[in-house]
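Practice problem 4.
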């Protein structure tokens, strides 16, 4: 038996009896539909993902660079993302061609046929039909290995296009000699500043036949923002050219060091080594099932979970930190690509079972990113924080590891970093800490953020409990109950709040900007940290079960915004996106495991297939597949950080898990045999007492703005005393007991709370605005129901929307001009006329091309007062507001004023949504 030090030095997996399980991997699964996977060659957690690119247009279904419906290959690049919903990577593209060299992608691309494709773990091949070139690809951790066979004689060239796919910020190519070139590619896409260094070696001398560098274009050195090169040689029919492309995130020297992973030109040997590496990893879970399709689905799922996170350091430990400086990893491996909103749910819990060493490495990576970037990662990519998605789910991964006893990282530092992320004031956290929830007025996706922050806070509390930090435990346990403040006890749904009350109207099926990639149905069961409390809020076990049944049995149709991620619907359950993934297991908590089994096995049978369209939604960096792997073996971690697993009848009759300590566990429908410690745990500590929060009251009124007066009521889910005061200045508040609805006739701010025998809820605030005039408005256009801003009067209420349009203060008009007429009620002298519009081009919201203003005294015959042209570049990245002000120095008498804003039209070719219909967003019409 190897000693522990040997296991740590060489990797425990080397001691496992590896079977040939890679033969069952089908990398084509998920390359069609919305799976967003890629079929190319990579190693477990490797830096290199060498794969064909069939899409360079930035389209959503081309996020991975490849889509099975395509028949054109533009090249073979060395970095790819597995199943994400945003486009990036595609670095260091190589494309073999023959004859005259062109750097036009339309010219150097080639058609291909799926009949010539072969993909397996660590290997990909295809024939490029244009010049009948046979391509074979394999990889080590940091090296992509190409073999091109030219079936015709002539001049063969290898094109390297640094402008492939995303925006090139700076690139250079250095020709070292006839067999070697070095590359730096610095690019911007999802990751705003990505560095890739590469060393490219050829097995035979090549010459530069063509090169472009729009900054430097010297003999042997080409640089700038447009950089391409063609390396050429004459070939005979049957000749091969082999290429090794080594990556480094740090330097040319790092790439040179990393190139030692493959020291010879034996391509078949490299393929065998890749296959062996995959067999070692895949052998951690061994299933027995006669159906080869099920084997393919299972082992491809396991394969997909092991394609990331990716090694992001050189062989000597050097890595590029979040501060863009070069650091050295000491005692751990530094990784990148953390899709934590997705993977905290199942992928990371799976890693705690089969990969404790890497779990510790991931957390050590988190801590270095905290030290070097100022906070824990949210969605880190190539040493960039993308801030995509919500929550601070690094803390879930950390808490889960600590509760499960995984060592190898600094628990105190981990708690410090976690608490720091939770105590920041961005992304709605300031409001969340102050009032116990996030409202639409504070931040978009307010319901989802409240719920996910509450779960993350519970995770931090579990860390505090382990470390004996009682005050921190109590504080974060109180915060973890914030879900109660967005749960409507009357309709039994999580709901958005606006101006102290529930947003109206409410449709639980509606996908809108109050939820993250989902609707209320898909978020109303996200209280994994307090499932008993959630069941009680629904009225008890029977009512909770009935609510789950209602969700699964509802019509499989959503309303509101079209959300491509929401797929795999069973009623309102959406397996194609992550917020639903734990829901089938909730039946276990009300004593109905048979319903869990029914739903889980239905999904296993119907939503995962051995075919290119075999995933029902985005793979999302292994999360979709991790759900399959865990559910198929009979376990799911509904609450990461609890140390407990929810059970379901395993999908296979015989499963064997291999653990790092040399133990194993056999799982069958009859039970468990062997090392059960990892999956069957008893609580190790007595729970600390937790003070229950009192939910905040609801401030209920017809709207935020009113003309003459408004009636305001306070409501709660209990008979407890309600208190309020009018906030007039900074003086000490005088609380009054609420007894009856309040009538307001002036702009007023109300602060309210619940008082339960001296225990008080958080405070909730609402401001009601008396309209500055009695104008009315008639809108000839039709706004999108999601972007109504409170209806027609919202354009005249004196309340201006901010650049964060997702908060709901703007009206949106798509594929149409905007036209409205304002009745001033009497003739007035007009000196200024404004219509405020917003632009967020990435979201299809573009300034109108112009705004025309008209006046009339009879409401029928209108005179053009003037036209204001747009002055904002539609390519401008930042969200921008323009007032389109028309000044009338002489003044114009009028009773009726008309505004007409002209829509931008179809989105242009440079836009990711080219051909789509632009929106006009307008909030306030201002008249003086």
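Answer key:
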């Amino acid at each position: 038996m190897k000693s522990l030090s040997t296991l740590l030095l060489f990797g425990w997996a080397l001691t496992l009896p590896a079977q040939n399980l890679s033969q069952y991997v089908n990398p084509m699964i998920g390359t069609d539909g919305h799976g967003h996977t890629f079929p190319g060659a990579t190693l477990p957690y490797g830096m290199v993902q060498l794969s064909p690119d069939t899409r360079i247009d930035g389209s959503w279904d081309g996020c991975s660079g490849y889509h099975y419906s395509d028949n054109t290959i533009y090249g073979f690049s060395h970095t790819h993302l597995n199943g994400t919903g945003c486009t990036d990577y595609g670095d260091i593209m190589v494309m073999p061609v023959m004859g005259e060299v062109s750097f036009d992608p339309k010219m150097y691309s080639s058609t291909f046929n799926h009949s010539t494709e072969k993909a397996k773990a660590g290997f990909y091949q295809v024939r490029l039909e244009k010049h009948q070139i046979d391509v074979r690809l394999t990889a080590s951790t940091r090296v992509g290995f190409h073999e091109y066979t030219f079936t015709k004689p002539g001049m063969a060239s290898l094109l390297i296009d640094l402008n492939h796919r995303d925006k090139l910020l700076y690139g250079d190519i250095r020709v070292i000699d006839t067999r070697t070139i070095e590359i730096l590619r610095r690019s911007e896409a999802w990751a705003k500043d990505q560095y890739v260094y590469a060393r490219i070696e050829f097995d035979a001398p090549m010459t530069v036949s063509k090169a472009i560098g729009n900054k430097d274009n010297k003999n042997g050195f080409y640089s700038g923002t447009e950089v391409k090169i063609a390396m050429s040689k004459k070939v005979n029919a049957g000749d091969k050219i082999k290429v090794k492309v080594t990556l480094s995130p740090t330097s040319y020297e790092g790439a040179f060091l990393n190139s030692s992973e493959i020291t010879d030109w034996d391509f078949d040997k490299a393929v065998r080594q890749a296959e062996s590496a995959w067999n070692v990893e895949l052998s951690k879970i061994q299933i027995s099932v006669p159906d080869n399709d099920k084997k393919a689905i299972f082992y491809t799922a396991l394969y997909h979970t092991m394609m990331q996170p990716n090694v992001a350091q050189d062989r000597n430990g050097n890595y590029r930190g979040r501060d863009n400086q070069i650091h050295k990893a000491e005692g751990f491996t530094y990784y990148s690509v953390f899709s934590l909103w997705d993977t905290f749910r199942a992928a990371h819990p799976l890693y705690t079972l089969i990969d404790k060493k890497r779990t510790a490495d991931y957390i050590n990576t988190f801590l270095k990113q905290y030290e070097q970037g100022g906070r824990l990662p949210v969605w880190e990519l190539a040493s960039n924080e993308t801030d995509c998605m919500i929550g601070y789910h690094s803390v879930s991964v950390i808490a889960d590891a600590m509760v499960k006893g995984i060592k190898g990282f600094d628990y105190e530092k981990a708690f410090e970093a976690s608490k720091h992320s939770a105590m920041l004031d961005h992304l709605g956290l300031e409001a969340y800490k102050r009032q116990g929830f996030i409202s639409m007025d504070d931040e978009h996706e307010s319901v989802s953020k409240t719920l996910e922050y509450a779960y993350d806070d519970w995770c931090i509390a579990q860390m505090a409990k382990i470390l004996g930090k009682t005050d921190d435990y109590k504080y974060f346990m109180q915060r973890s109950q914030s879900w109660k403040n967005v749960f409507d006890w009357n309709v039994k749904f999580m709901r958005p709040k606006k101006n102290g009350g529930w947003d109206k109207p409410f449709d639980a099926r509606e996908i809108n900007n109050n939820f993250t990639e989902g609707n209320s149905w898909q978020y109303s069961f996200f209280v994994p940290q307090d499932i008993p409390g959630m069941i009680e809020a629904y009225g008890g076990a029977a009512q909770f079960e009935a609510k789950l049944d209602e969700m699964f049995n509802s019509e499989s149709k959503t309303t509101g915004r079209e959300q491509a991620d929401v797929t795999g619907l069973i009623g309102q359950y959406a397996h194609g996106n992550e917020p639903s993934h734990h829901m089938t297991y909730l039946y276990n908590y009300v004593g109905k495991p048979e319903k869990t089994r029914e739903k889980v096995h239905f999904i296993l049978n119907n939503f995962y297939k051995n075919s290119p369209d075999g995933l029902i939604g985005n793979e999302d960096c292994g999360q979709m597949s991790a759900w399959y792997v865990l559910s198929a073996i009979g376990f799911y971690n509904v609450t990461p950080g609890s140390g407990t697993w929810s059970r379901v009848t395993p999908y296979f009759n015989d499963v064997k898990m291999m653990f790092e300590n040399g133990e194993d566990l056999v799982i069958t429908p009859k039970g468990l045999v062997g090392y059960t410690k990892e999956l069957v745990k008893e609580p190790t500590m007595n729970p600390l007492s937790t003070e229950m929060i009192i939910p905040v009251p609801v401030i209920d009124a017809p709207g935020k703005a009113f003309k003459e007066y408004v009636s305001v009521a306070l409501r709660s889910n209990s008979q407890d005393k309600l208190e309020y005061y009018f906030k007039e200045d900074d003086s000490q508040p005088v609380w009054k007991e609420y007894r009856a609805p309040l009538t307001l006739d002036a702009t007023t701010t109300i602060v309210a709370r619940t008082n339960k025998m001296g225990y008080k809820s958080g405070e909730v605030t609402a401001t009601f605005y008396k309209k500055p005039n009695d104008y009315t408005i008639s809108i000839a256009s039709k706004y999108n129901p999601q972007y109504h801003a409170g209806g027609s009067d919202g354009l005249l209420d004196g309340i201006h929307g901010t650049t964060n349009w997702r908060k709901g203060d703007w009206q949106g008009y798509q594929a149409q001009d905007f036209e409205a007429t304002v009745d001033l009620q009497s003739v007035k002298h007009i000196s200024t006329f404004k219509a405020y519009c917003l632009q967020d081009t990435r979201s299809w919201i573009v300034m109108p091309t112009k705004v025309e203003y008209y006046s009339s005294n009879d409401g029928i015959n209108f005179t053009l007062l003037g036209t204001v042209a747009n002055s904002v570049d539609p390519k401008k990245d930042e969200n921008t507001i323009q007032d389109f002000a028309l000044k009338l120095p002489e003044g114009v008498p009028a009773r009726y004023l008309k505004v007409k804003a002209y829509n931008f039209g179809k989105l242009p070719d440079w836009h990711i949504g080219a051909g789509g219909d632009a929106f006009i967003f307008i909030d306030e019409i201002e008249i003086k």
